Amino acid sequence: MISSSKRSPLTYLVHATVLFLVIIWTIPTAGLFISSIRDKDQLSVSGWWTALSTSEQRIVARAHEPKAQVQEGDLFVIRGNLLEGSAGEITKFGSSSLKPEAFVVGTVADLKKGKTLEVMENGDYVLSSPDEWKGSRGQRIFYTAEVPPRFTLDNYREVLSTEGLGQSFLNSLTVTIPATVIPILVAAFAAYALAWMRFPGRALFVAAVVGLLVVPLQMSLIPLLKSYNVIGEFFGVGSKTYIGIWLAHTGFGLPLAIYLLRNYIAGLPAEIIESARVDGASDFDIFRKIILPLSFPALASFAIFQFLWVWNDLLIAMVFLGNNEEHLVLTGQLRELLGSRGGNWEILTASAFITIIIPLCVFFSLQRYLVRGLLTGSVK
Amino acid sequence: MADVKLTHVKKIYSNKVEVLKDINLDIKQGEFIVFVGPSGCGKSTLLRMISGLEEITAGTLEIDGQVVNNVPPALRGIAMVFQSYALYPHMSVYDNMAFSLQIAKQSKAEVDLQVRKAADLLQLTEYLDRLPKALSGGQRQRVAIGRAIVRRPKVFLFDEPLSNLDAALRVATRMEIASLKESMPDSTMIYVTHDQVEAMTLADRIVLLSAGNIEQVGAPLDLYEHPVNVFVAKFIGSPSMNVVPCKIEKAGEQTSVSICPSIVVNTPIMTDTGEQSKAAFFGIRPENLVVVDTAEEGFLSGEVTFVESLGEATLLYVKVPGCEEAMIAKQAGTLNIKRGDTVHLSALPEKMHLFDDKELSYLR
Fold first, then answer.
1. Hey, how many other C-beta atoms are within 10 angstroms of the C-beta on A173?
2. What does the angle CA B182 – CA B184 – CA B186 come to, to the nearest 5 degrees?
3. Rounded to an integer, what distance in angstroms lies between the CA atom of residue A122 and that of residue A88?
4. Which of chain B's residues have a Cβ under 8 Å away from the Cβ of A277?
5. B320 partner at 20 to 30 Å CA-CA among B14, B187, B190, B272?
6. Distance (Å) from the C-alpha of residue B326 to the closest C-alpha of chain A?
7. List of chain A residues whose C-beta atoms are within 8 Å of the C-beta of residue B51
8. Cα(B220)–Cα(A317) distance, rounded to whole angstroms?
9. ipTM, two decimals
10. CB contacts < 8 Å between A and B, how many?
11. Which CATH architecture has domain A157-371?
12. Which residues constitute the domain of residue B251?
């Protein structure tokens, strides 16, 4: 008891390493998330790690137009508020772009021709002039403000509606769900046959599947597209449709799926299957009632792999799907945004976060099957 | 009715290994047959061939008068209990037992009736909703037996069903199987084990296999008392029989042999006079060797090289001068004999065994 309660120093090393890895992997995600919910003006001047502190912003504003002027004694005065109700504190101001921080707040700045400008901390300003204000545009005022942190869902609202990400999201789901389910169905049948049914050439089939694992996808992309177009034409199916990408993803996913599932299913205890056979179950009964429920952990772990791979795929989507609105998937949309809105971090971070939400949900809902052994209690 | 008959049955694997050579066996309905033998003797393979899980290479297998060589397992009227229980881990006890009936598309009421009857018989009623992983080893084994019972098979096949249980549970479950057999006198049961205690206690007849051959078939005590050869003599009984080479000094109605190499022993076994002065084997079971006080009363004397006190019995390893291997003598209770002591051993002549130079018994 005493010796077993004493931990080896390696345990601490393991814990420290795990903690380190968790931090390394969590920080970028957290940064992405925080950036995506920050106000876009704050996002453009400071990093996400300063999100909770007040930020200093240099802003240009225009005073009210001259028609808002009021005559007070022999002065013409324009009054207003720079912050217009939003929170913040002004520290410095100026009237020219060359010296935007020329005056401390609360002092009166002398402009040309006897005009003066006074800005208070809360944003109130007073412009006064001995002559009448002329022109149609207001006086420019430069000021530096301490703005408290502001979080908003506006970025999400914007990308989902105006940037077309909502439609892409649906497109991605349309691609991913069938492209995950179809290979699992096919592979489970194949894996059972390759593991438990006796037929000539079985070993060759398994070897072929293993061989297909190492075929690079890029090599087969163009021939596949060409033959698909020919066959599709024969059946009257267009070249860039969802059916095409489902089939392509199924084909590219199958070798790994069959290989993984076959290994798992072959590892199930033979006596359980023999017992079912003695009980009168046919191969299909055995598959449906014994193999499928028992290989759920393997099915789930492959589902995670395949889902993430299809969801994150750009290449196959570019080749097999069109670039129009009803076919563009999330990854494609992100790439487009990167080109057209490359400077708008609030758009990019929000889009990126929407893209990873579904994979995160899939992972967290299925991850317990990765670790849980369903077999406890069947044999000894 | 549910006889099992094997005629010239062989099993040869694709790599030309002959696992079973010419098995002939006639099992009557209601018999409890135990296949016993050392590991690798082919007893499990033979059982799996009867069940239909292994193909029969040559010969015929008849169940109930019909040749079933090519009949799938489910249609042979058999049920099998596996060594590892082979319960379906994702199904409750009830579903495990109901599985075969549901596959056979029996009505729900019928399934329920059969399952509850079997559960009642095996005292599993309160566990019907549990998953196998929530059961103890003995309970899992009972579920496996229950799964066999609900099918109401003609022949029950047990493949080492007790070898995963601990010693106490093994005895208890052995009794349960024995009483199960009594409650179903019409069912034929075939039971594979490597444990001779199970074989002796359960069997109506034991089939002793070795290296793909049947060595002897007979009632347990028949095998114990009249082994047909040295292999059977040594396999049945624990510790195994002392067998030493000998020379037949005088053949005839009563045979005299010399062992170790000059001790002459008279046995009541009859041998042909042609056997005179041939080499042979003399056997005596450890429990039939009795320690006596004087050399005159006994026929063997030697030094004790090792003493094993088991409480209920004491095993003496006695090195007789002239014999290569130590003789084992099993005495009841505890004895005040230490290593290095010299002891004298006697035996009843009718307990002696004599085998010829081909290790076959001279049947009395």
1. 14
2. 110
3. 7
4. 53, 72-74
5. B272
6. 40
7. 278
8. 75
9. 0.79
10. 82
11. Orthogonal Bundle (1.10)
12. 242-355
